[in-house]
Every structure is written in structure tokens, then in C-alpha cells.
Amino acid sequence: MSMAPEGTMTAVIGLTEMAIREMLQTHGLIDIDIANLNSPTQIILSGLKESIIRAATFFESRDVRYVPLNTSGAFHSRYMEAVKQKFEAYLKKFTFPAPSIPVISNVDASRYQANRISINLTAQITHPPQFPLLNSRLRRITTVRRDSPHCTRKLVNGTAIIRLAPKSKLPLIKALWQQRPRP
To answer: What are phi and psi of 64, to 5 degrees?
Structure first.
């Protein structure tokens, strides 16, 4: 990652992607990329440190939350291109089999195909994860997979809980959940 220029990221909360793109264009902040679409109105920007700092004034004047993130680079942006190319070259050493379970790309919410695994892995370095699109895709998969032998459903306090993992994996999942960082 040391090949990437000095960059950083910031969260913009309260504007849509289209409104953010318009603001970036209007204020000549064309060197800032949209790096993550966490939700329709929680979007992460990525760019050179000076540009991200300069953009704060424009967003804060719109009464929008502009939250600088503690990152060491301008991830999921054009500034990671050199890193992406190096990773692409590294991945050429490997042959990936077709996934045995569905694996969904965070760049376009499509299923991984054996002939596109390297492309999917490298694309996420310079492209934003599409979390709203992923959530929509996962809801469709959950609906389709309800009849899977690994799927269980139960109602907890009025909320439907759907488990797609095999029962044998539940102790591992529970252990990982208990070890998660907490605020």
C-alpha cells in the first residue's frame, strides 16, 4: 500500500450519492471518489488528504455530517490503482476453482464465477462496495434459499431469524460473535 499516494477517507451522512456527485462537480472536487455506498444517505469519500480536508467546508455548510475516518489511505479509489495492478500480477500465480457456495461480489453484487474471481478480487481495490445493492441481492438469495437443508427459521421477539449456515458451524459463528469488538 505504500505505493499509493497519501490519502484518506471521510463519511458523508445525510446526502444521496447524486447530491454528493453534484457537490463534488460544482466545487471542482473532481479528485475525490465515492469509495463506499453504505446506505442511500451514508456515503464514504476517498481522496488525497488535502482535497478531503478542503471538501469539509462545502459539506458542512449544507448541514451535513462530514466525519473524517482514521484510515491510512484512499481505499476503493483511483489512488489505489498501483496497488491493484500489483495485486493483479500476484493473483496470476493462482488458479481459482468455482466457488462451492455462492460468493457475492461487493462491487456489483453478482455471483463470483470461476473465470472472474481475480477480476472481482482486484476490482474492489479501486471500486466502491455497493452495500445497498448487496443487501437487496442477499434478500433475494435468502428468499430463494429458504428451502435449503441448511436453512432454519424461527421467530424471536416478533423478528424472523433466518440461518443459512449448517448447524455444525453454529459454535464457530457464536464464538466469533462473542469475540467481536464492542464500542
So the answer is: -115, 145
